[in-house]
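Consortium newsletter contribution from the modelling node. Members have asked for a concrete example of what our holo predictions look like. Here is one, prepared for the D-glutamic acid complex that several groups have been discussing at recent meetings.
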Amino acid sequence: MSIDSNSPIGIFDSGIGGLTVAKAVMQALPNEDIIYFGDTARVPYGIKSKSTIQKYSAEITRFLVGKNVKMVIIACNSVSAVAKTVVTEAAENLPVLNVIDAGTKAAIKTGKKHIGVIGTLATVHSGAYKKKLLKKDESLTIKSKACPLLVPLAEEGWTDNDVALRTLSIYLDSFKKNGVEALILGCTHYPLFKKSIRKVFEQREIEIIDSADAVASSARSRLRKLNLLNSSNKPGNLSCFVSDHPQRFRELAERFLGREIPDIYIKQLLE
Ligand code: DGL
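And here is the predicted structure:
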């Protein structure tokens, strides 16, 4: 079956975090329509087992395929770490991009040798970043840290208050001490803490790697290569689907994107 270039791009995450990716895709590809799915009924994913994350990811991918998307972007590191193959199978013949491949490429590009990775328990325990980074350059030193409290804080909109700063300074303490030069934000919720992370590192020079821009530019080159760029010159539309509580999602998402999102629908995937 051929893919229609004017179809939307499908992007998904466990909740609001993947909007950091959607925002970057909207900037890189302003004429593309986007269908975003946030699994707000089942967030967080990062503390769940591999098989549960795989089951949820397959359901969401099938939903996006049913919406006739032309590409699937896994805007969740936890899914990219443990369910990439499942998503690729469920996406049938569609191109699938993920944030870990993009984040790894971006980290290598910095040329830094001491790299820190923060992510969910699922991402850090999978060792996905470490394996990929070392495959590209075995001379790298990589230190990883799971930060499970950050996703609930982000979903609550607590990204720059005292609680967020205190939590970040505990999680990042070892990175401050061990001379990490670049920090990979290995969870798409974490870019929401960028300013606070800089505050915690104070004057220390650190390169912060956010895979959102990297995955957005991969999406552009992949669509161009496949001749699937949208031919329209009108601004693309963002439609969001969430599995629970659309109003709560709207408030946080509009605050984060700095614009209204008229199209937020509820789609329950719970069995
Ligand atoms: N934002 C996701 C990630 O990149 C998922 C976080 C979660 O649901 O725990 O890992």
